[in-house]
Structures are given as structure tokens and as C-alpha cells.
Write a structure and sequence with these properties.
55 residues, mainly alpha, 2 helices, 80% helix, elongated
Length: 55
């Protein structure tokens, strides 16, 4: 659990005192989008590997 807290602190600290606010919001949305895409790629690879699909 400490690792997740560390990553959260890094994430929050990266956006402290950043201007303009709209850019901060866009970067936060983009980082969440990238995390979701990475999760989907790992899930798709795992699903195909477990079910024996051809690569």
C-alpha cells in the first residue's frame, strides 16, 4: 500500500503550483486516459495468452 501512496504523492506533487489551470486539468485527464489504455493493452494480451489465441 505504501507504493500506491508514493505514486499518489508523486502525481499530486507534479501538478502543484502549475499554471494555467486548464492545462493542469488536461494533463490529468490525459494521464488517466493513458493509464486506461495501458490497462486495456495488458488485459488484451493476458486474455489472448490465457485463451490460446494466435498472435
Amino acid at each position: 500500500m505504501g507504493t500506491l501512496t508514493h505514486f499518489k504523492n508523486l502525481y499530486v506533487g507534479a501538478f502543484e503550483n502549475c499554471k494555467p489551470e486548464i492545462l493542469v486539468v488536461l494533463l490529468k485527464v490525459y494521464s488517466v486516459f493513458c493509464a486506461l489504455m495501458l490497462f486495456m493493452a495488458v488485459y488484451a494480451f493476458t486474455y489472448r495468452a490465457v485463451n490460446g489465441f494466435e498472435f
